[in-house]
């Protein structure tokens, strides 16, 4: 299971949400705005999902990038992220960095921490799906393109192996 401690780099901390539960509302807010609000799903539903990351199991896990009290970004490890690929598990998902903090390496760092959290939870392969526009970003981070054009949104599926 992922360490409940935190890793600090240049004053930016990547922490398990369980160590910084006061950021749960920020995680829910960003994930809701990016992926659920456009589908008409109420914020309360995503708030409940965010709280699942505070449980004692190895998955789900939410990570938070923050500088002191300032929320910067988040990524999660969840059991399932694509109904077309129910046998793939776990997934790095809900990768988000607040706009003002982008292009500083935080997104790459938090995705890598999330993959390590999945491996620490016992996975030897971790999955991720993304729109094709994000392909260079994930490939540069060491993710392998496993499949293209999956599902109704034509997503890429990536894998990363534990080493
Ligand atoms: C995708 C996302 C998480 C990236 O976050 P980020 O913090 O900007 O990520 P990074 O800084 O690690 O990398 C982003 C780019 O900045 C570049 N970069 C990293 N550090 C940099 C620096 N110090 N100076 C300039 N550029 C830098 C990276 O090379 C990368 O380039 P690319 O876009 O050509 O791949 C962010 O844009 C986001 O939240 N988008 C909206 C939600 C989303 O699309 N999530 C992904 C769903 S699959």
UniProtKB/TrEMBL annotation:
Signal peptide annotation: none
InterPro entries: Acyl_CoA_acyltransferase, Bact_Acetyltransf, GNAT_dom
GO molecular function: acyltransferase activity, transferring groups other than amino-acyl groups
Coiled-coil positions: none
Superkingdom field: Bacteria
Pfam families xref list: Acetyltransf_1 (PF00583)
Keyword Acyltransferase included in the entry's annotation: yes
Keyword annotations of the record: Acyltransferase, Transferase
Occurrences of domain N-acetyltransferase (ranges): 15-163
Name of the protein: GNAT family N-acetyltransferase
